[in-house]
Every structure is written in structure tokens, then in C-alpha cells.
Amino acid sequence: MDKLSPVKQITWGIVRILGLNPGPFTLEGTNTYLFGEGERRVLVDTGDGEQPGYFDLLKQCLGTSRIDRILLTHWHADHIGGVNRLLAMPELVTSSCAVYKNKNPATDDQDNVKAHLALAISQNRLYNIVDMQTFEVGDVRLQATYTPGHTDDHMAFIVTNNNADVAVDERLLVTGDLVLGRGTTIVYDLQQYMNSLDRVLGIRPTMLLPGHGPIISGSKDDTPNAVRVIEGYIAHRNMREQQIIAVLASSPPNAPPIPRNGGWRLEEVTSAVYTDITDPRIIIAAQNNTRLHLNKLLFEGRVNTDGDLWMFVN
Question: Which DSSP letter does residue 113 get?
């Protein structure tokens, strides 16, 4: 079992460096990944930029090498927050270090995103990532895979190794926050998210390198654990949908507004489904997940709304 040491050599040419920013949403912290063995390396994600110890770990791993390209899975601060500081550290990056992120107006026009990428923007070092774009560093090859749902700009990366002398599994997947090493992730658009899960399931990865939590590897009964986890994510969302339908099909609480006409408030549905959550921050995330499912069901014509009440359509 991966115990999330600050630095972990995953396989030849791939090192995980923990962002040292633990929390209820980041778990032990943001996983960043350093690729390559030569003088120029590729870094996927940068942590939140607020942990000096993280940059010390990067220096330890790099030695005399330098980061030449930074690939960002998505716009959240715990993944892009270290960009400005990195670009200002010549002991860690080359003078021509480029930053790559999927350009998306829905995310990039936010002031906090512009602030985190300010140095890359002002120095004309920020470039777009498009679906299926490839990045090579030595014998390691990363292929971008557009996987929206957690965010509009989310990218995963398929990792392969072209060195015939190195036994490296050719179906490694850097998942960002699409799939975590433990627990489930927050979703922005459920329909897109389910499509993205289906897409990466089709890759049949044998190792997941998640944005948070332990690395997922190994197999059982000839099925990679990575595949089992993705299948579990899909099954989990389908289970939540069935739980919400079951709640809406039952009698609502005897509370205002009266009459209810079979309707449930969002908060009531969430409490009935997520019975084990007490952290207020996590409750808000659970309410967001419930809303996503309800909106999907509304689009499908399986529920109706009346003000702030949700009602099952028999």
C-alpha cells in the first residue's frame, strides 16, 4: 500500500512529489509528478505554491536537472498555485520553461486563475493543451486526454515509455481530480463527468496516478485495480442516483412549506442520502453532488420542481 511518502519513485522516469498541503479536499496533499531522467524534466501540477518544503523536495529530486515544461491538469489553486513561484526559481526551471493548460473561457477568465498564472501570462509562456496532444521527455511520452466534469478544463495524461529495455506498464494514467486514490471527487457537470469516466475506462489503465491520495496499481483476477476503481466510480454515481430517486419517491418531512405535494428540499434530500457526514464543508460538497444528480434527473424528465421543492415523476 502506498503510504504517501513525500517523495516516491513510481517507476523509471516517474517520481511523485507530495504538495505538502493536506486538507479535507486535498487528502494528504496534492500529488505532483516529475517525468524524465535527463537534464530537462516535465512536471505535472505544482501544488498550491504556499508550502516552502515542496520546492525543497523538487530541488532534491531534480539535482542539477531543471523543469522545462509544466503541464496543468486543471485550474484549481491546489494544482496551479505554484506556477508563479516556480517560474521565478532558476534553480528549478529552465529560462524557457513553458506552462501548458487547456484554455477555457469558463475557467481562465476568473481573477484567481489569472493571478496564479500571472507570470506565465506576462512572459508569454502559457500555452494551450488540446485533446490527444503529446509531450515527450526522453523515453517518456504523455498524451493529453480531455476529461471534463470535475472542471471544464480538466486534462488527464496517458503515460507510456518508449525504452524497450525498461519494463514499464504502458497504460499509466495521470488522473488529476477525475479519479482520486481514495474516496470520490467533486463534480461540476455530472453528464460530462460520467462521459469522461467512460472514456478513461476504455483505456483500461493498469495504474492510476491521481491528483490526491495513493497510487492505484496491481490487479485481482486478471483485472487491473485501476479499472476496478473507475468501474467503482461509475457504480457509485449510479448508486447515488438510485438513492436520490428512492428518497424522492418516499413521503417528505412534515415541515414547511405546507402543502408539500410530495416535494423535498435539496438539503433534506442530501441529509437523507449522506447520513454519515458532519463536517460543514463536506456537507456543502454533498449538497452540490445532490444538486448535480437532481439536475440530471430533471433534464431526463424523471423529476419536477416547484420553487425549491423537488418531486419524483412516477
Answer: H
> Who contacts 239 (Cβ-Cβ below 8 Å, separation ≥6)?
none
Task: Identify the CA nearest to 34 among candidates 48, 18, 14.
Answer: 14
Work out whether the CA dihedral 205, 44, 62, 57 comes out positive or negative: negative
Q: Which of 272, 304, 305, 263 is nearest to 290 (CA)?
A: 272
Read off φ and ψ for residue 73, nearest 5 degrees. -75, -35
Cα→Cα distances 226→68, 113, 164, 206, 252, Å:
29, 31, 24, 5, 39
* CA–CA dist 24, 83 (Å, integer): 23
The Cα-based distances of 300 to 191, 266, 286, 311 in angstroms read: 11, 18, 21, 13
State the residue for C-alpha cell 415523476: 313
Buried-exposed string 214-243: b where 16+ CB fall within 10 A, e elsewhere: bbbbeeeeeebbbbebbeebeeebeebbeb
pTM as predicted: 0.88
- Tens digits of per-residue pLDDT, 245-267? 999 999 998 888 778 888 999 99
- Going by their DSSP bridges, the two strands 7-11 and 223-224 should be labelled as unpaired
* Backbone torsions φ then ψ of 55, nearest 5 degrees: -70, -30
- Alpha-helical regions (H) of 133-224: 190-203
Is residue 36 within 8 A of residue 13, CB to CB? The reply is yes
Q: Are 80 and 117 in contact (CB under 8 A)?
A: yes
**Interatomic CA distance for residues 235 and 64, integer angstroms:** 46
Q: pLDDT, tens digit, for every residue of 73-110?
A: 999 999 999 999 999 999 999 999 999 999 999 899 99
Q: What does DSSP say about strands 66-71 and 40-44: parallel, antiparallel, or unpaired?
A: parallel
Q: How far, rounded to the nearest angstrom, does the alpha carbon of residue 278 sit from its chain's CA centroid?
A: 24
Instruction: Please choose, from the candidates 21, 131, 112, 129, the residue with its C-alpha nearest in 3D space to the C-alpha of residue 69.
Output: 129
Residues 59-68 have pLDDT tens digits of: 999 999 999 9
